[in-house]
DNA sequence: TATGCACGTTGTCCTGTCAA
DNA sequence: TTGACAGGACAACGTGCATA
């Protein structure tokens, strides 16, 4: 074994005359050590430059103080915001986060889960990719607590927005506030729960407004570059008109905005996620977002509670949403 | 190839001291 | 004598390396 210059509990014990055990407890401010001893040992530890060996701690306790955050696409600003919030909230519990990206790919997601398990993370927050059921069953069998964020899959614990209401509010706003009758819905892939639910909400709003549903105005796209432009071009080519756009996410809404710029079309767009709450420099956009606590807040709270109690996350939480007008 | 040890830390249990 | 408090002893965690 290579001897390093790292200061250990043993070094502090030799210097102070206490045992390694007492030093450990003093450094953790345990109440079975007198304050005088704690102050003395902590002072010496600081002077010697002691840094806790997390690997040794986790070997003994079985916990590493880290949670894996596995996301579909970290280039999406929504996920960047989630990471920042999760990291900040987890740090309040003395936890750090280990971020992995799946690119919406099932195999990559499985590797990410295995990678995180190898790092001995204490829990998982996952935005699952499409067709992820096998991966989630695998994770469930490990006994590690986990919570899905943003998407619901079967009875797995999750924190999501009320996606049906999101779709409803967005389409309703376009119909009532802007008076639009031909609302194009640029949706995500229907294999994920939120896309299905938002579509249901969209249809409910149309029905309420007495607008007939036209399936040609519902387009599922990926986040790959050019996907939206191609859809808009195909609509134009087929002479299918639209006077308002509901985008599956703010990211798609901004891409749509970009695709329409220079075409001369002035079409109101409503997105979902309300990322301007955090990214205030983004262009004005009508958007639906969480009415109160964010998904990250609820997910971290749920996961930390499960880790603390040694149980699994069991709930499926659906957060209320509201429409945030752009204020243009 | 099998076994044992070392690494650093900490949970649990035990012992010693002292005051009431 | 009893109970509270302070601190010590032991064992075990996962992995890599040395030795038999």
UniProtKB/TrEMBL annotation:
<keyword id="KW-0805">Transcription regulation</keyword>
<dbReference type="Pfam" id="PF00356">
    <property type="entry name" value="LacI"/>
</dbReference>
<dbReference type="GO" id="GO:0003700">
    <property type="term" value="F:DNA-binding transcription factor activity"/>
</dbReference>
<dbReference type="InterPro" id="IPR001761">
    <property type="entry name" value="Peripla_BP/Lac1_sug-bd_dom"/>
</dbReference>
<dbReference type="Pfam" id="PF00532">
    <property type="entry name" value="Peripla_BP_1"/>
</dbReference>
<dbReference type="InterPro" id="IPR010982">
    <property type="entry name" value="Lambda_DNA-bd_dom_sf"/>
</dbReference>
<dbReference type="InterPro" id="IPR028082">
    <property type="entry name" value="Peripla_BP_I"/>
</dbReference>
<keyword id="KW-0238">DNA-binding</keyword>
<keyword id="KW-0804">Transcription</keyword>
<feature type="domain" description="HTH lacI-type">
    <location>
        <begin position="7"/>
        <end position="61"/>
    </location>
</feature>
<protein>
    <submittedName>
        <fullName>Transcriptional regulator LacI family</fullName>
    </submittedName>
</protein>
<dbReference type="GO" id="GO:0000976">
    <property type="term" value="F:transcription cis-regulatory region binding"/>
</dbReference>
<dbReference type="InterPro" id="IPR000843">
    <property type="entry name" value="HTH_LacI"/>
</dbReference>
